[in-house]
Write a structure and sequence with these properties.
This protein has 362 residues and is α/β, with parallel strands linked by helices. 46% of the residues lie in helices and 17% in strands. The strands form three sheets. An eight-stranded parallel barrel has the order 2-3-4-5-8-9-10-12, surrounded by eight helices. A two-stranded parallel sheet has the order 1-13. A two-stranded antiparallel ribbon has the order 6-7.
């Protein structure tokens, strides 16, 4: 049976994009470049664009992510540059007060004509937020406790005229927030633990999943479905996929070899050190630390090859994991995104995975 999925792009708001190397495309962390990427994604039929929130880079010869655009304002600006594609900003619950975000989202909702969404992050990197004095030293359960209170307050402000709330993390007294968004914004959350899944399924709309390979992605996606059944509430599952395309498998591998030759070991070590401060239950931190040990700029989880090879591997994960969406990162967000949007989606359609991009005829 044909599986319909949503297709999104994780736009490169940090310099260097998603590959920590001096020999990979040195993407600028500029609004103009990200505008080009997002407009192209809309033209190709992508369903949504997502941007990360990052406050501190990893240095090294590549100066990886030493320059980053702020997520919320970037996506609001992109709303004026686009007309159809959904736009998701990233919000750290430790950084932003829910009452501030409630009004910002209502404004974003108006600017975008109802296309605004949130990627909610309960934890992340202690150095990233700690440099501003905003990191809270909470254990795994505590972070989701804060996130739960955060989203409860935000939803009340989006739907109630006045909110009084005295909780563990936030205090509001007769708080008013107008205007309201036309509807509650869709929310995704990156979680792979059962506690994270429960938070996401109970409070959000999409489980956003990363993994070290196809087997893990399939396993995590299936577990999300199991937790969803236990909670008694449906959820969507979106997987994050790094794609390195080439005309042939050999061409794509040559690109990977080149990027790995220029791997920035200093930046990788800095990333591992910063995430190494985090709690053991944080699976994202564990992946970052393990990635630093490999000494590779492109991890083995990447989908590498011709459009047909990439589509074959991606279709396998989509069908076996029953995944509802794919979030794509690539080395070059113009040429490579065109290949994904035109050629890979066509190959996916031949493997019973339908996307709006493949049906658009672009």
């Amino acid at each position: 049976m044909t599986k319909e999925i949503e297709l999104g792009v994780f736009i490169p708001v940090g310099n260097g994009g998603w590959i920590i190397s001096t020999t990979s495309p040195q993407l600028p962390a500029s609004y103009e470049y990200n505008r080009q990427v997002t407009v192209l994604a809309e033209e190709l039929g992508f369903d949504f664009a997502l941007s990360m929130a990052k406050w501190r880079g990893f240095g090294g010869p590549s100066k990886h992510w030493d320059v980053t655009l702020e997520s919320f304002t970037t996506m609001t600006g992109l709303a004026e540059a686009t007309s159809r594609i959904k736009l998701w900003c990233t919000i750290h619950t430790m950084v932003w007060h829910p009452a501030v975000v409630a009004k910002m989202i209502a404004t974003f909702d108006q600017v975008s004509g109802g296309r605004a969404g949130i990627n909610l992050v309960a934890g992340s990197n202690p150095s990233d937020q700690g440099q501003m004095g905003l990191w809270r030293d909470l254990d795994h359960a505590g972070r989701y406790g804060l996130a739960e209170e955060w989203i409860t307050v935000a939803k009340r402000l989006w739907t109630e005229e006045r909110v009084t709330h005295h909780g563990q993390f936030f205090d509001l007294e007769d708080c008013m927030s107008n205007p309201k968004p036309a509807a509650l914004p869709p929310i995704l959350c990156a979680a792979t633990s059962d506690r994270g899944f429960r938070f996401t399924i109970e409070n959000c709309d999409v489980c956003f999943m990363g993994a070290t390979g196809a087997d893990e992605m399939i396993s995590v996606a299936r577990r999300a479905r199991e937790v969803s059944a236990e909670v008694g509430k449906p959820t969507k599952t979106f997987g994050l996929f790094s794609i390195i395309p080439g005309e042939t498998d050999a061409d794509a591998q040559r690109r990977v070899d080149l990027y790995n030759e220029g791997v920035d070991m200093t930046a990788l070590a800095n990333r591992s050190r910063e995430y190494g401060q985090d709690v053991p239950q944080n699976t994202t931190a564990k992946r970052m630390i393990d990635g630093g040990k490999t000494g590779l700029a492109v991890t083995k989880a990447a989908l590498i090859g011709s459009p047909a090879t990439i589509a074959e591997r991606l279709a396998h994960v989509v069908h076996e994991g029953d995944i509802d969406g794919a979030v794509v990162i690539v080395p070059d967000f113009i040429d490579d995104l065109e290949i994904v949007g035109r050629e890979v989606t066509r190959e996916l359609a031949e493997r019973d995975v339908a996307t709006a991009a493949s049906m658009s005829g672009v």
